[in-house]
Amino acid sequence: MVLLVNTPTENGSAWRDMFLKLEPSLEVRVWPDVGDPADVEVVFAWRHVHGDLARYPSLRAVFSLGAGVDGVLADPAFPRQVPLVRMVDPNLGVLMTEYVLAAVLRHHCELDHYHRLQQAARWEKRVRPFAGDRVVGVMGMGELGARAAGALLGLGFSVRGWSRRIRTLPGLETFAGEAGLTAFLAGTQILVCLLPLTAQTRGILCASTFSRMPRGSCVVNAARGGHVLDADLLAALDSGHLSGATLDVFETEPLPAGHPFWSHPRILVTPHIASVTSLPTAAALVVDNLRQWRAGGALRNVVDPDRGY
Ligand code: GLV
Question: Which of 15, 130, 157, 303 has the smallest CB count inside 10 Å?
Answer without folding.
Answer: 130
